[in-house]
């Protein structure tokens, strides 16, 4: 077992340092690149916090949809193939909900401030990730 | 910034075709990958300096990609657009071997803003904003109305071919995405087929490629992806949510409604087919998503190991939620 602090705690400490101490001292193109870098660290922090639960939920949902087990990658590939062939579509029970849940879980990590995502959080009650971080 | 030999070659070129030009100054690179560069500079003349832009492939680099129209075609299209009254920078000179600067062209610099957040939020553009969606419609009608007989040689691409190209690109990334498959399937099922009207299509008409001033659109840039095809493609692409920058209830670049754009298009002599526009909006959303995947792949495999590329790769999920909102809205 590795020692503490955990990776998410370390990354957050670095991101906060760059945001609070360094960003105010930097301008121009370097400031833009610094912002991109801070955004990347924030994304990783969210991913570390959220992926365990969202991957488990996606895995369970894929197993139920496809009727058997497999790796997350292979199950996704199989669902993709079935959609491509027309064997599965939006009228297949569970497919639409599954696509929405997995997509919302991705946005919670990738871009929680994306306007379409925020609109869906305001609008819909069902199938939302329960632990969306506030940042 | 700029190597001496390059600046000297640029000054020599300018003196050879610009009456009274004595030299150049303030040469600065605006953007550039390995194969395509943009430079800003000032042509010095006793009776008035000229602010200019150079777009070029440096000597030794060929065409950017199979989809690119080529810099010579770009220059020709900008000349035709300018003559047709489409806001466009004036092309000053197309490079020849004698210039020693590679392939490309020089144009007059157009003042204005290209940064979407400023255009959508700054007070300076407050008076222009309500008019822009309609103006964009009129500009697209003008662009699509350019006489095809006058056009340089361009590839023709149909909706069916475009679906195939996107499917190939997506499959090559070998990363299963059920939402992209859903979109590909929808596109195949709703493919409108060959358009009755085949026209010049700009191919990348959106924020970032429009120079906007307080008075409205001043120039349409970046004709790199121009081709012949369904004119409704440009109307769909400009509505892709990725270029609304948060103003998601104003589909035309975050500026206004589709209806305003359509009204401007029809008033300027164009004919709108709304089902085709929707088809191309879905196609455009998927296309941007697949382009984000391409950024990720180039980040991982290519020499440009940049954070920006990596982070753009993670934006493909934005297009997935937009595709679901278009094709499988909740509730």
How would you portray this structure in words?
The complex is a heterodimer of chains A (135) and B (331). Chain A has helices at 7-22, 28-66, 72-85, 95-110, 115-123. By secondary structure, chain A is mainly α. In chain A, helix 1 runs antiparallel to helix 2 and helix 2 (28-66) packs across helix 3. Residues 129-135 of chain A have low confidence and may be disordered. The longest helix of chain B has 28 residues, at 274-301. The mean pLDDT of chain B is 93. In chain B, strands 1-2-3-5-4 form a five-stranded antiparallel sheet. A two-stranded antiparallel sheet of chain B has the order 6-9. Chain B has helices at 4-17, 71-83, 116-121, 129-144, 159-172, 178-189, 232-237, 258-267, 274-301, 307-313, 316-327, and strands at 23-32, 37-44, 50-57, 91-94, 103-108, 199-201, 210-213, 216-220, 227-229. The chains are: A mainly alpha (135), B alpha+beta (331). Chain A binds chain B through residues 33, 36-37, 39-40, 43, 73, 76-77, 79-81, 83-84, 86, 89-90, 96, 99-100, 102-104, 106-107, 110-111, 114-117, 119-120, 123-124, 126, and chain B through 176-182, 184-185, 241, 244, 246-248, 307-308, 310-311, 314-315, 317-318, 320-322, 324-325, 327-328, 330-331.
